[in-house]
Structures are given as structure tokens and as C-alpha cells.
Amino acid sequence: MAEQASYLFSTRTSKVLAEKIAQFYGQEMGKINFQEFSDGEFEPVLDESVRGGRVFLIGSTFPPADNLLELLLMIDAAKRASAKSVTVVLPYYGLARQDRKDQPRAPIGAKLVANLLTAAGATRVMTMDLHADQIQGFFEIPVDHLYASTIFIEYIQQLKLEDLTIASPDMGGAKRAKNYASHLGADVVIAYKERKKANVIEEMFLIGHVEGRNVILIDDMIDTAGTLCKAADILMANGAKTVRAMATHGVLSGKAYENIENSKLLEVIVTDTIPIKTELSSKIKVLSCAELFADVMKMVHEHKSISDKFII
Q1: 111 contacts 136 by C-beta, under 8 angstroms
Q2: Can you list the positions of beta strands (E) in the chain?
Q3: Dihedral sign (CA 120, 123, 138, 195)
Q4: pTM for the full model?
Q5: Is 166 helix (H, G, I), strand (E, B) or coil?
Q6: Annotated catalytic residue: which of 84, 101, 160, 193?
Q7: How confident is the model at residue 1, as a pLDDT?
Q8: Which residue range or ranges hold the Ribose-phosphate pyrophosphokinase N-terminal domain (predicted)?
Q9: How confident is the model at residue 121 (pLDDT cuts 50, 70, 90)?
Q10: Does 6-147+290-309 match 149-287 in CATH topology?
Q11: Is a pLDDT exceeding 60 seen at residue 2?
């Protein structure tokens, strides 16, 4: 029986990351032709046969919504081209913050995205650091949920920081911070925040002691960076020696770059799930997730266990 072929394609905005993944995977990116109409409509056309093969479609679905639509059209194209399986590689899962109905008449966007991906023809989803773990349960197809901890913990160990403390910028990230601390033999503190509306913090309080400690804030994403900068202020005011921040997804909207550059944060480390404009802040460092995704994609294609790729 002939070995099943694999094919890699990318959305336009995730092309840089996809090419890195392809390099680690050991295969060139598949050719795709984007036809555009004068009104803004576009049509992605696969430029090579994928019949009977495993197709990996790589694309983060950060705004604008065209990124999600483009990915859905590519899934549909692969399915209609008789691909045997279509694995959607979503380094950043857009709308993941809409994971529950937290107020009357609100949508559950994360579930809607899951429905759309499945309806389009995806047979497997691979993603990293979902905003809420329960999003995996929105799917009726296999979901490989990877963690940036496999990248970040190695970086933290290379820093060789004494008096290390891991901090969560909110109550929701307490479990994540505790898991990091357990692997690193560090203490844990929590910054408790109260919001009146999205992206606006009313008050923040520190739970724990950080005097004389080197603190690393751990989060799944940085949006406007308001939370992280406020947390850094409180940590430094309570006697921390240094404060760094690590987050998987650098959404970095609004005045995020300016906020980070003017903050008390020593450095901010993110992955490349979303393209980062590092030239806008000298404090931002990007670690690539390409090798991790390439390794897991290869294991999935070869029907091997991926359990050793999970730390947290």
C-alpha cells in the first residue's frame, strides 16, 4: 500500500510562519492561487492535486474576519479536490474569548467557529493555548491542543534567574501559573483584577509576596497590554526586582506597543502565532512555534503518539 502523501498550504497572513513550519517539516509549501475581484471578494484555488492525500492548512484567524473566511474557503477547496483528510492548523484560534454566554443575548463565537470549520470539511484541528480549554469540546473531530510552555519553560531555564516567582495577571490564569511554577520550582502570585468593561481595568490587587523576587507574568494572550502593564506596576511597587511577561499570542492591538515600551516590564516574550511588529518596541522578543507545530504535524501524519509534546 502506497504511503499517503501530505500537502501544506497557508493563508496569506500566516505565510511567514507557515514557511518556517514547512522548513522544519521538510517539505515545500503547496502552491495556491488567490483570485481577487474588484469588490474585495477572493477565491483561493489549490494549484496542485491533493487527491487521496493529507492536507495541512495553516492559518491563524486573527482579525479581520477575512482571515477566517479565507481558511474556510481553503478547507472547502481541499475537500472538493478529494483530499482524504484536511487538518486545520490554527496557531491562534480567533474568537476564543467568546467561549460562553456571559450576558443575555450574547453569542458563543468560539463554538460558531468550531461549527464553521467542521461544516467546511475539516477532519482534524491543531491549535495552541486556547483561551479556554473547554473549546476542545465544541468539536466532534479530533483536536490537538498544544502548549507554548514547551517553548517558554526552556527559555526561562536559560535565564537562570534566582528568586524566581511566576505570576498570573488574573484569577483565570492561576492554574497556568501554578503549572509553570511546578515545573520550575518557583513561587506563585496572582494579580486580582476587576473590570467594568472589556480592555478597561477598574482595580487590581496582588495576592502573594514578591519583595526581592524576579517575577515572570504568564498569560495566553496580550491584547492592549493594559493588564500586564498594570500588573507590572503593582509587582514593582511591592518590591519585585524585575518583571517580565510571557504570552503565547501577541494580539497587540490599540496602544499595546506603546504601553509595553513605556511600562516597567523588562521584556515581553511572545510566539509568532500572530505576526509581530518587533520594530515598534525594543522590549518585545519573539520565540517561534514553527518547530513544535512541524513536529506534531509529522507525528500526526505518521500516526505516531504526540503525548510527549505536552508539558502543561
Answers
A1: no
A2: 6-10, 32-36, 42-46, 54-58, 85-90, 124-128, 143-146, 164-168, 187-197, 200-207, 214-222, 242-250, 267-271, 284-287
A3: negative
A4: 0.93
A5: strand
A6: 193
A7: 41
A8: 8-121
A9: very high
A10: yes
A11: no
